Amino acid sequence: MSLKEELMSERVSHLDLSKFCQIASGTAVRTALAEMRQSKTNVCLVTSGGKLVGIFTERDVLTKIATAPEKLDAPVNDIMTASPITVTPDTSAADALWLMDEKQFRNLPIVGRDGQIKGNMTHQAVISFLAARYPVEVLNRPPRPDQFPRKQEGG
């Protein structure tokens, strides 16, 4: 089976979708950042009544908060991307990856047909999947990993 066929047949629900934190709508940006730090992730999925209403990422911090630190105490709703594009757990990994590439997303929320958050797809989830399937090709090492150059490159 080719890589393309494998990604087309694999569903996003089979990938590691665990790298995200979840916060309630109206949470202060400062609190959202603390949650992200504690969870060691770069994305918070914002919910209201258990349903996804927005996504808050490190890009939002860099583009909207870094130059305006007074917004740290604002509600995350003022900064987040509202009504983010999502896919279902049944979506193929290839289709989800294509969507991420097309829209230039780093995070793609996975939401079930019942509206419940199932996870967050990242490029790392795809790389981990591929590394498990093709360890030699993905996790390769140089032929002599302990070798060091005798002189500086370009010198």
Main attributes?
CBS-domain, alpha+beta, 4-stranded mixed β-sheet, 155 residues
Structural Rg = 19 Å
Amino- and carboxy-terminal Cα gap? 45 Å
State the helicity in percent bands. Answer: 25-40%
Percentage of β-strand residues: 15-25%
The poorly predicted ranges are none
The CATH topology: CBS-domain
Number of helices: 6
Overall description:
With 155 residues, the protein is α+β, with helices and mostly antiparallel strands. The chain is 34% helix and 19% strand. The strands form 2 sheets. Strands 1-2-3-4 form a 4-stranded mixed β-sheet. Helix 2 (29-39) links the parallel strand 1 and strand 2. The termini are far apart.
Task: Give a brief outline of the structure.
This protein is 34% helix and 19% strand.
Which helices and strands appear, and what pairs or packs with what?
Layout: H1 3-9, E1 21-24, H2 29-39, E2 43-48, E3 51-57, H3 58-65, E4 81-82, H4 93-103, E5 107-111, E6 117-122, H5 123-133, H6 135-138
Parallel strand pairs: 1-2
Antiparallel strand pairs: 2-3, 3-4, 5-6
